[in-house]
Design brief:
9 strands, alpha+beta, single chain, minor pseudopilin epsh fold, five-stranded antiparallel sheet
Length: 205
């Protein structure tokens, strides 16, 4: 008795051109439906990345002030090169023990053997995952003392983060979930949603 050959024993069948075209059409329909939502998600993620970066920088400044028992600054900057300037709309930030304006590219670190101004602790450029996000703050420089309290300015600071490239904020009937980072006089740092519908909730400001 003859044994079946491999070709006859294993029945192989590929896709027909009709099945392939139907699959491509279905994929195109799904992409067309999900594309705008995915684009909005990407733009919203830039707002969140910027907000979380600001929050992390502020918390770092506060923690370093307590650890060193010294004044530590968090400053919003126009850039991180030698021409940097303080700006309430700056999307770059630097944490240092002295004013860093004009010296953001300094290699004078706080933990160097013989530290000199501006004694930089950490810096973050705007392009780190949030190049389209914009910032609007009530203060460009925030200083914490050794107790972790904000000594300058003397009132709470609100930093609003939005993304005009992605559209207007949800509170303005847009599709961007704009966020706010709030620094209390006591030093507490919180990221929240400024929409009035979130007031009184854990996510609200």
């Amino acid at each position: 008795m003859l044994k079946p050959t491999l070709h006859s024993a294993v029945h192989q069948r590929g896709f027909t051109i009709v099945e392939l075209m139907v699959g491509i059409v279905l994929l195109a329909i799904l992409l067309a439906m999900g594309g705008p939502s995915f684009a909005a998600w990407l733009q919203n993620s830039q707002i969140r990345n910027m907000s979380e970066g600001l929050k992390d920088g502020l918390q770092l400044a506060r923690a370093e002030a307590v650890r060193r028992n010294a004044l530590v600054r968090f400053e919003l900057m126009t850039s991180l090169d030698g021409s940097c300037a303080l700006s309430a709309s700056g999307t770059n930030w630097i944490v240092s023990m002295d004013g860093a304006a004009g010296e953001c590219n300094s290699t004078n670190m706080a933990d160097a053997a013989a530290p000199v101004a501006p004694r930089v602790i950490q810096a973050r450029p705007a392009g780190d995952g949030s190049r389209n996000a914009t910032v609007s703050s009530t203060a460009s420089s925030i200083t914490f003392n050794g107790f972790g309290r904000m000594v300058s300015p003397a009132a709470d600071v609100a930093i609003d983060v939005s993304n005009p490239d992605g559209g207007s904020c949800l509170k303005d009937s847009g599709q961007m979930r704009c966020l706010r980072v709030v620094v209390g006089v006591g030093g507490q740092v919180k990221m929240c949603d400024a929409r009035s519908s979130f007031t009184g909730t854990s996510e609200g400001c």
